[in-house]
User: Which sequence fits this backbone?
């Protein structure tokens, strides 16, 4: 049985040559940002990965196959699609069997990247434990995936729309190294600090790559979460973003928004309430993560040769 994987030629060539490749997700395109900023961001993220010396592989499900790397016209079509499935671990096989168009979340992108032989993945934000999870049980499958699948994920920490302390607890329970890059505090997506210390810290891409390879040597399952703070010039201060988040959360609860719709709803309301400022920050942090992801992928590729 061959895997239902279709590689873009440049990604196949890079992997065969042992060159660095960075996986990129597609839910951020279809459910995380409005058109046309989603398309422009996806293109800019790919360009950033290239500029930093690695090959980008944006991952999506199309016509019954997992696409590892999307051609320009396919990326554009996906960015304009309004009815793509949001695909996490639970949805992956069903979406493929239906031959539906699927956008992969962090969890599903990790699974696909691992199947493709890619060990580094850069994105904006991960899912986490939602506020009120003690009643709703809404805990993103992203957290469990980080405990199961050997991919290092670069994200900008967890958003304050989530319960950040509980998110860190669940990651710890699942044995996920949560590594803040270049600072002690765990970053909070739009803000550089969540006010909580990160469990671990690294100050170079080489250190992160070495830890990634060490996990594999030890036979430990699961990946690493690299929490990369948003660049200072793009940051939205906590006191500015927190009231907006509270307003969006109240609306979500009044309107009965639940399950998979929660994160996309909150992101789009916060975008509206900040008059686009949240999106500008989001774009800046994704580009920053793409850069770090490429550096980590290069370090891993070099270590494998050496
Ligand atoms: N956070 C963002 N933008 C996003 C997402 C999260 O700032 O696009 C997406 C990612 O694909 C993430 C998913 O994996 O939402 C988590 O969804 P859920 O909470 O339903 O697991
Ligand atoms: Mn959820």
Assistant:
């Amino acid at each position: 049985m061959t895997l239902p994987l279709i590689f873009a030629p440049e990604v196949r060539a890079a992997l065969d040559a042992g060159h660095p490749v960075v996986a990129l997700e597609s839910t951020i395109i279809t459910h995380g940002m409005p058109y046309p900023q989603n398309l422009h961001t996806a293109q800019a993220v790919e360009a950033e990965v290239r500029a930093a010396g690695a090959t980008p592989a944006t991952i999506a499900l199309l016509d019954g196959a997992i696409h590892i790397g999307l051609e320009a016209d396919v990326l554009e079509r996906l960015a304009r699609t309004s009815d793509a499935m949001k695909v996490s671990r639970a949805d992956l096989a069903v979406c493929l069997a239906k031959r539906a168009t699927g956008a992969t979340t962090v969890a599903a992108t990790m699974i696909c990247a691992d199947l493709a032989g890619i060990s580094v993945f850069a994105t904006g934000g991960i899912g986490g434990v939602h506020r009120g999870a003690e009643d709703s049980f809404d805990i993103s499958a992203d957290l469990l995936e980080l405990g199961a699948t050997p991919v290092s994920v670069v994200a900008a920490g967890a958003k304050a729309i989530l319960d950040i302390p509980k998110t860190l607890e669940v990651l710890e329970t699942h044995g996920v190294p949560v590594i803040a890059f270049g600072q002690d505090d765990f970053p909070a997506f739009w803000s550089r600090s969540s006010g909580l210390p990160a469990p671990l810290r690294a100050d170079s891409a080489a250190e992160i790559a070495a830890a990634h390879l060490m996990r594999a040597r030890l036979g430990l399952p699961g990946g690493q979460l690299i929490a990369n703070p948003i660049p200072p010039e793009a940051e939205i201060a906590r006191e500015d973003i927190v009231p907006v988040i509270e307003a969006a959360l109240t609306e979500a609860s009044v309107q009965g928004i639940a399950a998979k719709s929660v994160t996309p709803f909150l992101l789009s309301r916060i975008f509206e309430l900040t008059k686009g400022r949240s999106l500008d920050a989001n774009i800046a942090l994704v580009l920053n993560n793409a850069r770090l992801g490429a550096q980590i992928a290069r370090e891993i590729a070099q270590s494998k040769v050496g």
Observations:
- Residues 277-305 form the longest helix (29 residues).
- The chain has a mean pLDDT of 97.
